[in-house]
Hints:
Domain TACO1/YebC-like N-terminal: 3-74
Strand order of the largest sheet: 3-1-2-8
Low-confidence stretches: none
Number of strands: 8
GO molecular function, one term: DNA binding
Distance between the termini: 13 Å
Domain TACO1/YebC-like second and third: 80-235
Keywords: Cytoplasm, DNA-binding, Transcription, Transcription regulation
Family: Belongs to the TACO1 family. YeeN subfamily.
CATH architecture of the largest domain: 2-Layer Sandwich
Amino acid sequence: MGRKWNNIKEKKASKDANTSRIYAKFGREIYVAAKQGEPDPESNRALKVVLERAKTYSVPKAIIDRAIEKAKGGSEENFDELRYEGFGPNGSMIIVDALTNNVNRTASDVRAAFGKNGGNMGVSGSVAYMFDSTAVFGIEGKTADEVLEILMEADIDARDIIEEDDAVIIYAEPDQFHAIQESFKEIGITDFTVAEITMLAQNEVTLDEQSQAQFEKLIDALEDLEDVQQVYHNVDLGE
């Protein structure tokens, strides 16, 4: 698969540690998920997915509770879910997911981030077809064979199971997210190094040193935007 999921998460968490930016993004995402359905993760699957991912980033309980309480309180603040697609250096592909209360501002900011950092926006569908929505889990303390056995007993057919550093990474269909979560919960495993539904590139590309430096600058600029929740791409950054 080419991705080093644990390393990617650690890099993002380290980058955001001093600004608490990641907590603000999670707060917004939790609020939106809770507002769109029941504010109870047991009956709101979208909220449950967000909370599981927040757990892997050690988002403080106070921030989670505040976002859910805001949704329960009937806040009138509304956010639109937007997806932008574009290209970076040497034809690299990028998907940007945003939550915004000002569509024009967000579109302008995303377009500017692409334009100022060697990229350009594409039309809807120009990039997304090269990515697959994928559930990804990271398990520690188990071998790949043990994880495969657990999933087989739960009648879950994963796309791929690989060993990465000290963890086993599971790739599966997004609709298997909750089944996988429950299969491990039944044997006492509730903590994951990775637990999310992501957009995974069908094929990764490698950039030369100069292009990669420019690409990373573009990704940083996009992730720095307040309204941007997730940035997906097809570049192997060698992590």
